[in-house]
């Protein structure tokens, strides 16, 4: 009986425990296809410069590699800290109770975001838990708590985004009816379950790609491509949870905006004028590593332009096509609409 149990535990697919989100541009749906290409490269260390949801990093960590993540969004950083860098620390029941039961006088969220995304009761819950997270002095436990709170808000929120106020897209999903408190408790469990040790020392970073002075055997680039057809402003989409992760420290809310968002972080990749130079300097910086780049067909630089940039720095450049229909969150994703058919590519430069 006992030995059976061990067998079952060992056969658990680590990646199936990844706490996924509907993060814009997430490679969740194509990670297995990407792996079919990446697995043939020789690498022990892996740098994910634009980690986003961290799905790629978590997958590669599950393959036993030393993973280094980076993203300028704090929500991405805390997820990475909680389940990529962290190999053994979990948030226990006493600490969860401390977060849930310690009274707090804080009212910033209730006052600033009244009637925008959540009910008054939910806002006070967020005020209380966010304040109590500061009582925890372990960086990994704190990262689990912040990530669980962020994912709870994303799950409870129609479409998981904060570009509109009210419940416009309330589709009656179970996740929307479930209380924020229950979402949070379940998410602490989900993040705890996702913690594992792959025998290497992984690391999470939270800086601009252009300021990251670390490299690895294989460097993976998945920047937000400029596209005239779609929005790639991460802060605009996720400002509320990003603010929550940072406790709005150092952020200036633009009070004239209906959504009460703060000013977007500047990224050279999201503007047509600066994207080319940004690619050149990033690829130049990592030219001694193998480089993998995710790319989708309706973006700038074009596929040919990006191939040429990569060829300036790497002697062997291959482009793999991974067909995939994106759901960008607009109304075009209804079945059969060809306008939303984006081809996804993986560039490999060695
Ligand atoms: C396409 S998403 C990455 C998605 C990720 N591969 C996944 O599977 O979830 C691009 C990410 O780049 C981040 N980002 C944009 N500009 C950046 C910059 N200059 N430096 C660091 N991160 C940046 C955004 O916050 C976003 O998370």
From TrEMBL:
What is any Pfam family matched here?
Answer: MethyltransfD12
**Which biological process annotations from GO are given for this protein?**
DNA restriction-modification system; methylation
MF terms from GO for this chain are: nucleic acid binding; site-specific DNA-methyltransferase (adenine-specific) activity
Query: Which InterPro entries does its entry note?
Result: DNA_methylase_N6_adenine_CS, MeTrfase_D12, SAM-dependent_MTases_sf
- List where this protein forms a coiled coil: none
Record field: catalytic activity: a 2'-deoxyadenosine in DNA + S-adenosyl-L-methionine = an N(6)-methyl-2'-deoxyadenosine in DNA + S-adenosyl-L-homocysteine + H(+)
Write the record's keywords in alphabetical order, separated by commas. Answer: Methyltransferase, S-adenosyl-L-methionine, Transferase
Q: What is its EC number?
A: 2.1.1.72
Stated name of the protein: site-specific DNA-methyltransferase (adenine-specific)
């Amino acid at each position: 009986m006992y030995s059976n149990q061990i067998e079952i535990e060992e056969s658990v697919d680590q990646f199936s425990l990844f706490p996924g989100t509907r993060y814009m541009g997430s490679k969740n749906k194509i990670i297995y296809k990407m792996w079919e290409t990446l697995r043939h490269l020789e690498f022990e260390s892996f740098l994910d410069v634009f980690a986003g949801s961290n799905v790629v990093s978590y997958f590669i960590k599950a393959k036993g590699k030393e993973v280094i993540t980076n993203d300028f969004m704090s929500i991405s950083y805390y997820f990475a800290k909680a389940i990529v860098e962290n190999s053994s620390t979990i948030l226990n029941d006493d600490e969860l109770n401390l977060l849930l039961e310690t009274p707090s006088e804080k009212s910033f969220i209730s006052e600033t975001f009244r009637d925008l995304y959540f009910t008054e009761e939910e806002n006070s819950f967020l005020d209380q838990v966010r304040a109590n997270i500061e009582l925890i002095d372990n960086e990994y436990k704190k990262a689990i708590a912040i990530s669980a709170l962020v994912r709870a808000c994303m799950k409870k929120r129609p479409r998981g985004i904060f570009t509109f106020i009210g419940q416009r897209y309330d589709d009656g999903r179970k996740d929307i009816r479930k209380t924020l408190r229950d979402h949070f408790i379940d998410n602490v469990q989900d993040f705890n379950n996702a913690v594992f040790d792959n025998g290497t020392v992984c690391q999470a970073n939270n800086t601009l790609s252009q300021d990251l002075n670390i490299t690895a055997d294989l460097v993976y680039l998945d920047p937000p491509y400029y596209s005239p057809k779609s929005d790639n402003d991460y802060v605009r989409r996720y400002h509320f949870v990003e603010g929550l992760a940072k406790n709005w420290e150092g952020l200036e809310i633009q009070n004239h905006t209906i959504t009460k968002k703060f000013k977007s972080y500047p990224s050279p990749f999201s503007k047509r004028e600066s994207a080319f130079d940004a690619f050149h300097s990033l690829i130049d910086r990592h030219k001694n590593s193998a480089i993998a780049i995710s790319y989708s067909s309706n973006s700038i630089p074009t596929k040919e332009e990006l191939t040429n940039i990569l060829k300036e720095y790497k002697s062997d450049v291959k482009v793999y096509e991974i067909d995939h229909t994106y759901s960008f969150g607009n109304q075009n994703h209804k079945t059969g609409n060809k306008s939303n058919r984006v081809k996804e590519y993986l560039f490999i430069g060695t």
